[in-house]
Known about the structure:
Elements: E1 4-8, E2 23-28, H1 31-40, E3 45-48, H2 51-58, E4 64-67, H3 76-80, H4 92-103, E5 107-113, E6 125-127, E7 130-134, H5 155-165, H6 183-186, H7 191-203
Parallel strand pairs: 1-2, 1-4, 2-3, 4-5
Antiparallel strand pairs: 5-7, 6-7
Amino acid sequence: MAGKILNLYCGIGGNRKLWSGYDVTSIEYNPEIAELYSKLHPNDELIIGDAHEYLRENFSNFDFIWSSPPCQTHSGMCIATRHKNRKFPAMELYEEIIFLKHYFKGKWIVENVKPFYKPLIEPTNKIGRHFFWSNFNFPEIDYPQIDKFIMQGSTSAKQKVMDWLGIHYEGNIYYEGNHDPVQVLRNAVHPKVGKHIFDHMVDDSTLTNEPRLYR
């Protein structure tokens, strides 16, 4: 039996694409995105529901937790479209960092984009456009980039971003009512970054082929 991993706000699973040999439970609230995730990662246990609440109720059943709370209210694009978008930054991001730091005994990481404001909690690591908060160390990594990544939003750009991630699917999935076929892909962590972090987590912990649960 492999160590147990919780993958919160899993999206299409870019971060976990190159993980192998572990028991992964993934949480996604959007049924259409969850259906695609299930096709891409059929061996994972997939739960459609509230990842934030699932973390609170089930954190002690896992050895490693990766959380990628929605980034839209923290992204610089929120400011760029402030005449249309007047949303408070979602504080679940910081709630989960504080919760994991003080309650969870395993390895954990929280990922989000570089925010338009000074982070309320200083990130422990930065890679590309991503900020990370974690209780283990990993160095930066060079990985392929797409110029003007945030502006990729056309049907033709979708193929380019799918090739970049190594994640391919038919049709379009629109995120929260928008008409951007690339949004779901842009939300993904590049698989090379996900594997880089995962490998350092394994090296820095006792996560092996035997479960190390904290109850």
